[in-house]
Amino acid sequence: MALVGSNSFEMGQLAPGFELYDTISGQTKSLNQLKGSQGTAIFFICNHCPYVIHVNHGLVQMANDYLPKGISFIAISSNDVKHYPQDGPERMQQVAAQLQYPFPYLYDETQEVAKAYNASCTPDLYLFDAGLKAVYHGQLDDSRPRSGVPVTAKDFRRAIDYLLKAETNPYPQHPSVGCSIKWKR
């Protein structure tokens, strides 16, 4: 479990479009279909990463809190399933059901979407405004596995709150950290 930080993603940059298989509905979904009226959160996650497992309940709670406010949430797994079969679509569907994901869990089989977002770790978290311009790319909060710090999602929630108030978030954006995305060889 090597610790990797998120790469840069320029604020104001448009979210790259995509069409990916949703393991929950069994349908292909596009970013335009899934974007929120007020904003869109995109999470690069996977099933086996201890950093994702650690924050999963915080992601679910945050989505449940902000979905009614017009923020959509999209989870994407881009890991190489040949070498990490636990991150494959069937298991993704099981994890989503078990954890009651209130958001789609998309499978990026080609890894092109992760590359378009310059994603590097799980979790790698992004927030876009209603026009799909990046307003936040950073950590959920200061909690890490075995740190003793509770998962609050304070950094990401604060970014959403500023977005909903149509104000600039004055707080620094700290990179997310986690396991590396498992790239195909």
List the helices and strands and how they pair.
Blueprint (H helix, E strand, L loop, with lengths): L3 E2 L13 E4 L5 E3 H4 L4 E6 L5 H17 L4 E7 L11 H11 L5 E3 L4 H5 L4 E2 L1 E6 L4 E4 L16 H11 L12 E4 L5
Q: Which structural traits does this protein have?
A:
three-stranded antiparallel sheet, alpha+beta, seven-stranded mixed sheet, 185 residues
How would you portray this structure in words?
The chain is α+β, with helices and mostly antiparallel strands and 185 residues long. It is 26% helix and 22% strand. The protein has five helices and ten strands, in the order E-E-E-H-E-H-E-H-E-H-E-E-E-H-E. It has helices spanning 31-34, 50-66, 89-99, 112-116, 154-164; strands spanning 4-5, 19-22, 28-30, 39-44, 71-77, 105-107, 121-122, 124-129, 134-137, 177-180. The strands form two sheets. A seven-stranded mixed β-sheet has the order 3-2-6-5-4-8-9. The longest helix is centred in the N-terminal third of the chain and has 17 residues, at 50-66.
Summarize the structure.
This protein has 185 residues and is of the alpha+beta class.
The main β sheet shows up as: 7 strands, mixed
Low-confidence runs of at least 5 consecutive residues: none
Residue-averaged pLDDT:
96
Report the count of strand segments. Answer: 10
Lateral strand order in the biggest sheet: 3-2-6-5-4-8-9
Question: Cα-atom Rg, whole angstroms?
Answer: 15 Å
Please bin the fraction of helical residues: 25-40%
Distance between the termini: 18 Å
- Tell me the number of helical segments per DSSP (H or I, 4 or more residues long): 5
Strand content of the residues, in percent? 15-25%
H/E series: EEEHEHEHEHEEEHE
Shape label: globular
Structural class: alpha+beta
| Oligomeric state, counting identical vs distinct chains | single chain
